[in-house]
From TrEMBL:
Keywords: Oxidoreductase. Belongs to the aldehyde dehydrogenase family. One of its GO terms (molecular function) is oxidoreductase activity, acting on the aldehyde or oxo group of donors, NAD or NADP as acceptor. The active site is at residue 248. The keyword Cell division does not apply. It comes from Prauserella muralis. This is Betaine-aldehyde dehydrogenase. Gene3D superfamilies: Aldehyde Dehydrogenase, Chain A, domain 1, Aldehyde Dehydrogenase, Chain A, domain 2. PANTHER family: ALDEHYDE DEHYDROGENASE-RELATED (PTHR11699). The keyword Metal-binding does not apply. Coiled coil: none annotated.
Length: 479
């Protein structure tokens, strides 16, 4: 298990200051890692800037770069079990998620963007100027800073890294300090695959390392996934420096359940949508709008299903719900549950830390509140944990306005047997992604990102190619 930083093709411990990453299932320290200084970040950016123009990287033909990404995908797939177990140990998600979703999705992204490398084209266009040939070409931006979150460390990194490399950029990665280990293991794979020194660099540490990366004058773009509050600070700093920026931020996703919906299917789908990765998902369904005539039945079924879930270490194959990532996150969740009780919401399930043999870890029992109103904080603020709220409605005409009555706009869910009703609501809801009659699924070819305070820009699909390139116009006189 690598614990050093990776800068310019070398593993380095940086200065003497370190920080710990913990196993959230036990609270035990997994490893001590170097806290990157401003000089460490500067060394990583300088290495990336030099690699950007080096023949070893800039001189690669598109087909050669595509083969390199395919090689990375193959090596990652060969070591899939190792990556899954490390992700589970460091982050807490059950192996069914890390091994069944996170790692395969990362492999898929490398292969998908390897396919794009040889297909990034410009256009020719007729101009109203005589004797001129006009064309465009897409070119890489330069050094890109990739700042990743702790909920899906490997997968979300690859969402950024694969298109950044496919388009010819170089990068400096700053993983979340809570979950840095699979990022360092991926750096080892990139090195093994033959990615030239300096093309990918990894610095570890907390907010100060991230701030140094955002502020560095040689960084052309920042791609950040994390909280809305931090995203606003990054956007402000990037705006002053006129850097490119992509932000995937917080969410408070509504799940609209029409009166005609199959309630049993809806409970199952929404339980997955709301409690995936212990609710630590920006797109988690957390506000359930249910017809008042069926709201009590839905809430009781949801509470019963939540109560029946098996909590435990993600390494245990019987575990359905793992720990949350840290003690700080555990305390934040418990704080919001206390707010919900004080606001008058009816607690139907959960509402406390898990005890017994799980007491040493960061486990919180899946929590369901009924009788929640639109103005309650638990219905408006992102909790990022296994806390679900049921909000009854009387008039279907109020659904879209209530769903949109939030600063967030990342995702939404709609459940109805009437496909016309479902699609009209999908058009009215302000969210970057809407799932109809299904839990959340993702694919490398489908654009991903938020509206309003849930971010700007898009990842995945062709949109990520656009996000990591800029267009150059070339005029040629034919006279």
């Amino acid at each position: 298990m690598r614990t050093d930083m990776y800068i310019n093709g070398k593993w380095t411990g940086g200065n003497a200051t370190t920080f710990a990453t913990h196993n959230p299932a036990t609270g035990e320290v997994l490893a001590e890692l170097p806290e990157a200084t401003v000089s460490d970040v500067d060394a990583a950016v300088e290495a990336a800037a030099a690699a950007f123009v080096s023949p070893a990287w800039a001189g690669l033909l598109p087909a050669q770069r595509a083969r390199l990404l395919l090689r990375v995908a193959d090596l990652l797939e060969e070591r899939a079990d190792e990556f899954a177990r490390l992700e589970t140990t460091d982050q807490g998600q059950p192996l069914a998620i890390s091994g069944g979703f996170s790692v395969p999705n990362a492999v898929e992204h490398f292969r998908y963007y390897a396919g794009w490398v040889t297909k990034i084209t410009g256009v020719t266009a007729p101009l109203s100027v005589p004797d001129v040939d006009y064309r465009t070409r897409r070119e890489p931006l330069g050094v890109c800073g990739l700042i990743t979150p702790w909920n899906f460390p490997l997968m979300i990194l690859v969402w950024k890294l694969a298109p950044a490399l496919a388009t010819g950029n170089t990068v400096v990665v700053k993983p979340a300090e809570q979950t840095p280990l699979t990022t360092l293991l991926l750096a080892e794979v990139l090195e093994q695959a033959g990615v030239p020194a300096g093309v990918v660099n990894v610095v570890t540490g907390g907010p100060e390392a991230g701030k140094a990366l955002v502020a560095h004058p040689k960084v052309a773009k920042i791609s950040f996934t994390g909280s809305t509050a931090v995203g606003r600070e990054i956007a402000a700093e990037a705006g002053r420096a006129l850097k490119r920026v992509s932000l995937e931020l917080g969410g408070k996703a509504p799940s609209i359940i029409a009166a005609d919906a199959d309630l049993d299917a809806v409970v199952e789908g929404n339980l997955m949508s709301g409690l995936l990765n212990s609710g630590q998902v920006c797109a988690a369904a957390t506000r359930f709008y249910v017809d008042r005539r069926r709201a009590d039945e839905f809430a009781e079924k949801m509470a019963g299903a939540a109560d029946s879930m098996t909590l435990g270490s993600g390494l245990d194959e019987n575990t359905q719900l793992g720990p949350v990532v840290s003690r700080e996150q555990l305390e934040q969740i418990d704080h919001y549950v206390g707010i919900g009780k004080a606001e008058g919401a009816q607690l139907l399930a959960g509402g406390s830390r898990a005890g017994g043999e799980l007491a040493g870890g960061y486990f919180y029992r899946p929590t369901v509140f009924a009788g929640v109103t639109q103005d309650m904080r638990i219905a408006r603020e992102e909790i990022f944990g296994p806390v679900l709220t049921v909000l009854p409605y009387d008039d279907p005409g109020e659904l879209a306005p209530r769903a949109n009555d939030t600063e967030y706009g990342l995702a939404a869910y709609i459940w109805s047997r009437d496909i016309g009703v479902a699609n009209r609501l999908a058009h009215q809801v302000k969210a970057g992604t809407v799932w109809i009659n299904m839990p959340p699924l993702l694919d490398a070819g489908a654009a991903w990102g938020g509206m309003k305070s849930s971010g700007q820009g898009r990842e995945m699909g062709w949109e990520a190619i656009e996000a990591f390139t800029e267009v150059k116009s070339i005029w040629t006189s034919l006279a």
